[in-house]
Sequence to fold (534 residues):
Amino acid sequence: MPRYFKISFLAGLALLALLVPHSLRAEGDLRKVNHVIIIMQENHSFDNYFGALVFAPGSPYHQPDAHSRNDDGTNGCDKNDHRCVDGLTCRVDSAGDFDCANSNPDLEGNLVHSFHDTRRCVGPDLDHGWLSTHREANFDNPNSTLTDFRADGFVRINDMTEQIDPPGVENPADDQTMNFYTRNEIPFYYDLAQKFSIDDRYFSSVLGPTFPNRSYLMAATSFGHLTTSDILPPPGGYKPITGTIFDLLDKNNITWADYFQDAPQGGSFRSTDPHFIPLTAFLTQAATGTLPQVSFVDPNFGLAGTAFENDEHPPTDIQRGQAYVARVVNAVRNGPNWQDSVIFITYDEHGGSYDHVRPPQAPQHGQRNPDGISPGQCADLSNPPASLESGGGAECHSNPLSKTDNSLADAIALCPALAANPTGPYPAECADFDQLGLRVPFMAISPFSKPHYVSHTIGDHTSLLAFIEKRFLQTQDTDGDRDRDGRHAAYQHLTSRDQAADSLEDLFDFDRAPSLQTALTQAAPPTVDCTPVR
Fold:
């Protein structure tokens, strides 16, 4: 999606809380965590940022060996090897130059290999729409990405739609979908990744763009929506049938805030809310030890232009985002709340950048979607009973931002059979919300983080909801069921996605807090900023 679609966030609603048994996998007591802070940046894949992590000088990590296998039978890291990172397959010569085997064909049949890029600004923006992302995953059969992931369409899609090249006048570095960064470009992130815990099996929630993915962070569903053109909500805001995490936090008297710079991401669901607070307040509260139990910390999305944008969305200089994130993380690290905090840093989606790992089936109890709502058949509580019907939800087949790009049109573009009966049974042969999106960077920064630790546990944005729910929304179950550590095993959730999501507790040691004294570095804004002015 072109980045100008990322405009104003408004609106909100409350509802459903169900009970579900789960077993904790943490070392120690999760209840020692009293503050959860989520920083979600924009548009980078795991390979784009951490594909070369093992090659950093002094890196504590190594590549998979030739005989390593993932749980799903694919090549990768053994699940019990937590110093192994499944990144790019490269060799590095004595001069520090990379020769990588990962490649994609271009439209003329030439192979474009992954390459180290020192340019911090990618331009034009890369394609990461619903249809295009599925074609990046399987160019010829985009509805078969779950069973036949090929990662063979990244270059061809972007040659066709975003980074269009005149025939025969292209060099390998023109296809920035295949680029990757090293410690030279993102030293602060590399420092965090080498000191604390990361996950090389953390995926975005949807094979698609920003709005659906951020909806999963806040509502554990995109309730049928596929495009960021739908991001400007109707009056009163989007009202998912199953509610939002904000509703659950309010219902249970859990303190929370969405700290923003130009617009709060929570504004998609609530037009105004006293929990939407400027970023300056977060920095003050971190210094005084008065952070709420749950914090969402948003970047500047560039809604008023690129002058202050720091979300790392192309073509913005990624050093801006690194400097902003460093400021937030250091504020927590140097404040009184550090000793019982967990900071999650991740990205909403891959942004069109290449990643070689197959996105797995979405954990949601075998259902094709988390809430009974298929792609392009949006339903919500905006205008019941009509809005409860398939396709009757707000802004499903039209929106204020585009005359042609809407969720129904995007669904039909990937699934032409849907056009015959858009509100009828969703065609079984078409891609649904039963597959996670492409891998994105993921770091867990906390005193409780296991040092130099790589988790291979499958997670997505709803794993962060599961972590919050398990920590703060446990309930007194009526039948006395307890988890293996003797604690109550029931907690509230929104949809089958966050109900089934792994809460990623294997990244932590809550008993020993092994990273309590770990020092952080700083990151300054770019001295020469490559961000285009608009």
